[in-house]
Amino acid sequence: MLALTAGSLSNTLTDLELSMGLDWLFDIRGPQKPPSDVVIVAMDETSENRLGVGQDLTRWRRFHADLIRQLHKQEASLIVFDLQFIRPHPADDQALAAAMRAAGNILLVECVQKFRHGDQDFYGREECSDTNSLPAISREGDSNTELPEQLVAMRKVPPTPTIADAVMDHAPFFLINDATSTSVREVWTFFDALAETPSMPVLTWYYHQVQARKLPVTPRPISSWLTEQRRNCQNNTNEPPVDSSQKRLLGKAICQGDSRYLNYYGPPRTFRMESYADVYEGKVEDLKGKVIFVGRANRQFSPGKSDFFPTPYSDSHTGKMAGVEIMATQFANLLEDSFIEIPAPGWIISSVFGLLVALLLFSFAGWPGIVLSLVFASAYASSAVWLFGQRHWWLPIAGPLLIQLPLSWLLSLAWSRYDLMCERGRILEFVSRVFPQWVGMLPAAPGQWTESANAGIAKSEKDVSGLCLATDIEDYTAIAAQHSPREMWTLLNTYYQVLGHPVVSHDGVIADVTGDAMMAVWFDAPATQQRRAACLAALEMAAAVASFNLSSSQEPLATRIGLHEGDLTLGSLDAGSSSHYRAIGDTVNIASRIQGVNKYLGTRILAAQSIAADLESIVTRPVGTFRVVGRAEPLNLVEVVGKISGDPPSNKMHALFADGLAAFQEGRWPEATRLFQAALALDANDGPSRFYLQKALHYSEMPPLAWDGIVVLDSK
Q: What is the 3 state secondary structure string of 489-509?
């Protein structure tokens, strides 16, 4: 839940996703090849020097007419001027207008001005400059009085009538040229503030589709028709009479919002770019059918010059991108239907990511969960990169990877630690409450010892020859994952009462209770008495747990038990300022390993062979010799089956198993196979017979190189 909340919170950091996440995706994807039909004629530094115009845009107008004739001669499809012809130049305008009219395929960018606080904070492009910034509103009284509220206004400044009447159409293309602005990632398709006027790339795209006969010819000017269709689209009225394929094209271009995220093809100068002077002088060929964008585009140095903007690919080497290149990029995205799309709201994707990470961390506690969540996050990031490159889908990655994932890890580790401490505290509280005779061996609080409660133990250690009983709950991790800590506490509270009473009733001492495991010891008594008491306690524990599982509505807690005897040290272990009472020694470890062998044999109680000696009232049977993990010396084990009174009854299945075990240990695999199959015919649920049958069948086909009758177990 915390990870889910973090996902919703991280998505609010839009600046992080815009400035980092989207840039990462562009960097990883790398540049792509732009459409070959798009060519930029750059009014660059070389042209400034060769034509002697410098950086004064008004001095270029005398050359535009010859440029248009050269492009018309080469049969260019469309010619788009990213220039605003606002002020008249009588010496040049007539010739330029005649060339535009003769070409018949000229589109002109309109000047757009944006004001905040009336005539303050003015923004415009190129010739759309401060010399044309008239107040957007009128103010009464003192003109020097500051406006009390922020007022935003946009307006178009038309080109000179001579030029406007000569071109095929014109439309605005507006980008904020603000030194404090971040990279240009989003562009307008229509301008709501300008009465739904289409932007120049949309207008150019429609004319291009008309030429390609993919869209119908409409009454000119098309810019006015597009504005009308945009309004009709918003009102769901008067749809244009077009077929289904044309309707899809128009719907995506006209009806989908008023802005789109640009899919940049690469750094500046990724599009084919020809020098204005070279085209003007007729040195450039292969322009037939091309859409030509004419505008300022420096090839070498852009810092400090206007109409250049940072993009996701901008750096100290590439510099900023010219406005005309951004216009060409938007047109190319329209042409290829390749804008960056957001398939679903970012908060939904981030929330789903956070939920899946939380499920992994909840299902797999600790480091396994962290590793699996890292693998999942890597797969998510790889999918996001692939979808960005192949489908142009933008999935959030900065927030999920930089915020959600580390935060989820920290919260998971903190919660696991807190949950563990709470569980330990509840278990120890239960033990001290239910079994008051053990209070002298229990901490007053989790991990703490008091001088009064442990006066005879906390300061001393005792070496004894005793017997250790180890228990473990089968599949405890899976069971705990399905319940809350409170539910597990309630379940274990009853379980340990059931498990502990047989130990106490047979004079045993519980040395440790940790999660799903309990360790009990017998000492300071004759060996035969200890063995008999421990075996009886184990049998009663198994019977009590079976009854508990039948009466419980929760999952059964199948319990495995292992018994071993040997030397032990009983005493307290100091850890900082705390002490912990434990039974220490190899005997404890071996008892735990014997308990684990039950998992392989399908049994419940296993003991070292020495424990079964001279126990006339306990039924046991040998189950083989094993070499367990971490111990070189093999262990001869017996299964503690039950208790009897009087003469032990004969058991034909046990006899067949014993004969089969002898044949198995001597390497007579076919005979062992036959005997184990006969044993299973009498008792199909006998785990040891089933275990050895599988081994015998395997060894019949692939005998071991050196056989000594010992079964090697490679895991706990």
A: HHHHHHHHHHHHHHHHHCCCE
